[in-house]
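Exercise 3.2. Students should predict the tertiary structure of the chain below and write it as structure tokens, then compare their answer with the key that follows.

Predict this chain's 3D structure.
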Amino acid sequence: MAKRGNGEGCIRQRADKTWEGIYTCGYDKNGKLKRRSIYGKTRGEVQKKLREILSSIDVGNYVDPASITCNEWLDDWLKRYLVNTKESTKAQYELYLRLYVRPSIGEIKLQKVSFFMIKNIILDCIAEDLSPKTIRNLNGIVHHAFADAIKVKLVKENPAEGQDLPKVQKKKMLFLEGEKRTAFCHEIKGKLYEYLFFVALFTGMRQGELLGLSWDAVDFNRNTITIYQQLKRDRRIGQKVGYIIDSTKTNNERTICPASIVFDVLKKIRREQTENRLKHGAEFDNPDNLVFTNETGHHLVSVYVLKVFKERAREIGLPDLRFHDLRHSHVVMRAENGDDMKSVSEDLGHTDIRTTANIYAHVSQRMKEDSAKRMQTLAETMYAI
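Answer key:
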């Protein structure tokens, strides 16, 4: 054992040539001194760690890693380690942890949480028939929490690392093309949410972005729309079920220049809102200055919007069509119009251009097939086999 220096604690070199620092941090329930060890590749590294620990013991803010429960760490992690994370995302983390993690391992010491324990949580979720995407998200949250615990030297390994997770089946993209696109526009004409569905198709905006669109974001002089927020469900624990205005899915702002007919529609919406404001008086309330509201100015409810949309889709023979498929259909129209892929991807706020490329590939293949059919018809008029 090496001689202890001033303020070092006790340092020694181990048989494997690494260095160990030993310090005491109070007494256990039997009155015995609690000894803890830290390790490093060099004496200097261990000395630095010891100095920090001994200093925290002196000022009274030392926390014994071996005594921290999983619940205690998760509470601290959610409160102090996710300062740059959106509140809605933190709320989702909190919900997943409360429902699926804390009941199983919350009271277990953080350092005792094992790979097998996390595996059991995943197996329980599979047994409860949770979707593969939810299970993968859950494991990702746990992995994030333990990765931060490793950074602050509370644990050595991440028990969520290397877990065998169920595969997410990619949903098939559907498109409104040709006659179906025309049929959809005819079907929504004069009916509830007509303008919302039309603007969705001709801008490619996400549902939350449309429901959260403010008049402040619409520039009628330049014919532009700036997308910087969305309306979404408030999932924070302890909050009443409702909706909040939040940043976009990707936290990025983008400005689009849709066709002028979109602004003609928006002007009609604005006129109707003005009429409703006069009609309902004090009952009319639109505090967020939203574009798409009901007659009294209140925001629309996403669940009911989806219900109405599905009714319209069934009427044109596409019961599996999703609201999000209007975005895909918008890309198809842009591709048919000859717009370049990069511009379309930027307008839609895609973080991965491959999403746009997949749709372009679909359109390109269909165009090739249509071209072959036209050539076949031409050839048959000129030559017989």
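Discussion points: Residues 353-382 form the longest helix (30 residues). The radius of gyration is 29 Å.
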